[in-house]
Write a structure and sequence with these properties.
16 helices, single chain, 18% strand, Aspartate Aminotransferase, domain 2, 432 residues, alpha/beta, Aspartate Aminotransferase, domain 1
Length: 432
């Protein structure tokens, strides 16, 4: 009689395997998921890599070495913010002890910084556009927009679609490349109930050649309120917070303060682009129109919480005391190429030939659907081949770009304190 075959090894218990992964720092329920996945695959030894893969799906700091200042996938404007663990007076009037308004903090400070009568803050610029149209032109009232400004931006945001959702009625004027004041006047004559003239900044594309557009000043002479969706959020064209004034690559970018001065009744813009703050949308300008937006039911759905408002308040205060040049975005945007080259040389010298790193001249871009076609001279470090996946696997992940079969780490978007991280990640490539 033959001996029976030995019993197959029993898989470890899910709980036992999960507890063996406790050093990963993940909560036990997530470790249980990783253990179950590995056991179900017949490979309990893969549980640790499954846990690591789960950890990498979570939000975490990364080093942006792409050279894209406002990288949408990396949260756009970098922001250094902290919060007190205590409650805040977000809707409490400390003087009277009665209920206050969340518009009295960040919104009021931003209004002061751009010489607007009033301002409110919502979740993002798309919300600002939708709320403004609903509050001021809902119920089928007409809104005149140049055909050259019926834009689509990232995430499928299309002006005609947003107009339809708001309850306003789109009135197209002019042509794709040329729209004159007479085109808006024609719409006013043809429409019984034209509520607004909307001007939309073409954030992520340009039209060149045989072109013409109507200025804000000219629109302001026509009668209906002029609303300008600036999108990118440059607060003041003079950039008084920078020691050397505005960088040359901002020369054609419209700014909130000057747009209001030119005659716009409202400006709408993002908080996480050229403003250098958290994700938010700002509606600023005539107090009566701002109040109408704040009174609309959608405002309650779109208003941000205390964390965003607190961070935006800090940003507004930095603009008011002209210290906004110290905001992370503006530090990076205004960095001198010579300083970037010096940092690149130090990195390469520290590596002493590891990974074949070399100093390169390169070009950064604003990003975030802002200033299409604009390049900003920069400097960085390059290594041969596409090594981006290996750099992303570093802790913290280093995000780079590939050009001409070389991996480029553009130092304009890397904080100087993170140069050591770049060195360590590149040294690891050299030892691979």
């Amino acid at each position: 009689m033959s001996n029976p075959s030995p019993a197959p090894d029993r898989p470890p218990s899910v709980d036992q395997l999960a507890r063996s992964l406790a050093d990963t720092g993940l909560p036990h329920p997530l470790l249980v998921d990783a253990a179950r996945e590995a056991i179900a695959a017949g490979d309990p030894g893969s549980a640790r890599s499954a846990a690591a893969a789960r950890a990498r799906t979570m939000l975490q700091p990364v080093v942006n070495a792409t050279g894209v200042l406002l990288h949408t996938n990396l949260g756009r404007a970098p922001l250094a913010a902290s919060t007190d663990g205590r409650a805040s007076n977000i809707e409490l009037d400390l003087a009277s002890g009665k209920r206050g308004s969340r518009t009295a903090h960040a919104g009021a400070l931003l209004a002061r910084a751009m010489d607007a009568e009033a301002a409110i803050v919502v979740n993002n610029c798309a919300a600002a556009v939708l709320l403004t149209l609903a509050a001021l032109a809902g119920g089928g009232r007409g809104v005149a927009v140049s055909r050259g400004e019926l834009v689509e931006i990232g995430g499928g945001f299309r002006v005609p679609d947003v107009m339809a959702q708001s309850g306003a009625r789109l009135v197209e004027v002019g042509t794709t490349n040329r729209t004159r004041a007479a085109d808006y006047r024609g719409a006013m004559d043809a429409e019984d109930d034209l509520a607004l003239l909307l001007k939309v900044h073409r954030s992520n594309y340009t039209i060149s050649g045989f072109t013409e557009e109507t200025s804000v000043a000219a629109l302001a002479q026509l009668g209906p309120p002029v609303v300008v969706d600036l999108g990118s959020g440059l607060l003041d064209a003079g950039c008084p917070w920078l020691d050397h004034g505005p960088p040359s690559w901002l020369a054609e970018e419209p700014a909130a303060k000057q747009t209001l001065k030119a005659g716009a009744d409202l400006v709408l813009f993002s908080g996480d682009k050229l403003l250098g703050g958290p994700q938010a949308g700002v509606i600023a300008g005539r107090a009566d129109l701002v109040r109408a937006c704040a009174a609309h039911p959608l405002y309650r759905a779109f208003r941000p919480g205390a964390l965003v408002l607190s961070a935006l308040q800090d940003v507004a205060l930095a603009y008011l005391d002209r210290s906004a040049g110290r905001l992370p975005f503006w530090r990076m945007a205004a960095a001198e190429v010579d300083d970037l080259e010096s940092r690149a040389h130090r990195i390469v010298e520290t590596l002493a030939g590891s990974a074949g790193a070399e100093v390169v001249s390169c070009a950064s871009v604003p990003g975030g659907g802002t200033l299409p076609g604009v390049e900003i001279p920069s400097a960085g470090v390059a290594v041969a081949g596409d090594r981006t996946a290996e750099l992303r696997a570093w802790s913290p992940p280093v995000i780079a770009r590939v050009e001409d079969d070389r991996t480029i780490l553009d130092l304009r978007t890397v904080e100087p304190d993170d140069d050591e991280v770049v060195v360590a990640a590149l040294r690891d490539l050299g030892g691979a």
